[in-house]
Amino acid sequence: MKLLRPVLLNVFTWSLVFLIAFPLVWMIVTSLKPQSELFRIPPTWIPESVTFEHYWRLLSETPFLRYFRNSVVLATTTTLFVVALGTLGAYSLVRFTYRGRETLALLVLFTYLLPSVVLIIPLYLMMVTLGLSNTLFSLILAHTTFALPYALWLLRSFMEGIPEDLENAALVDGATRIGAFRDVIFPQLLPGIISTALFTFILSWNEYLYALVLVNSDAVAPLTTGVMSMLISAFNIEWSLLMAASVMMSLPLIVVFAFLQSYLTSGFGAGGVKG
């Protein structure tokens, strides 16, 4: 029985990995199939002839690159805003004592629990009043509103795990509050900042509802709404281009994870040695 248990665990684990990875693998395989193999019955699991025609058509014949650029600007700017505001807010909630601090923290969390549908109409009216409707900046503000509350609580939990004595020692040694934050708190908080940045980037990259309501111009549309309007209609779906677009849309998330994964633990222990 002891020998059988690891085998069963491995079988279960790899079966789970296969089930999770299958949609992504099938999407890649379909994007590389020629048009003649797309609707073949039974389907071909491995393309008889690999083609990159769909990627070429997607990049040369459609405004995909414009949508891609808009999404990169949108997700990156939103992430920078959320990380900066969330870090300062978490520092305030943990290190300073003032009346209503816990109430404020609970109110912030409550706003995250509200569904997006409840907030979309007030946000739309606010953007119209401010003259920001149908702009990429309106999406950045909207994405910040729903990503910031969770990011604030996530960073707050990381901040609470940093010993206050380290910061006090730096202040005693003559460091300013900003200097102590930069040299002591920030290195310790780096894993939390990176985790928050990953969460925010993915949330902003995949968001659909706000982009559908706040933006109706093709020039500032992100990938989520741009690809849908470009490749999906009531009478036809461009499956070959849709699969190629889906692969291209997944690449930035894979690159971000691959690049930042090594930094998730690099901040632990940094800045904790008093010089």
Automatic annotation (TrEMBL):
It is found in: Cell membrane. The chain crosses the membrane at residues 7-29, 72-94, 106-130, 136-155, 184-203, 209-232, 239-260. One of its GO terms (biological process) is transmembrane transport. GO terms for cellular component: plasma membrane. Residues 68-260 form the ABC transmembrane type-1 domain. Keywords: Cell membrane, Membrane, Transmembrane, Transmembrane helix, Transport. InterPro entries: BP-dep_ABC_trans_perm (IPR050901), MetI-like (IPR000515), MetI-like_sf (IPR035906). Pfam families: BPD_transp_1. It is a multi-pass membrane protein. SUPFAM superfamilies: MetI-like (SSF161098). Belongs to the binding-protein-dependent transport system permease family. This is ABC transmembrane type-1 domain-containing protein. It comes from Pseudoponticoccus marisrubri. The lineage of its organism: Bacteria, Pseudomonadati, Pseudomonadota, Alphaproteobacteria, Rhodobacterales.
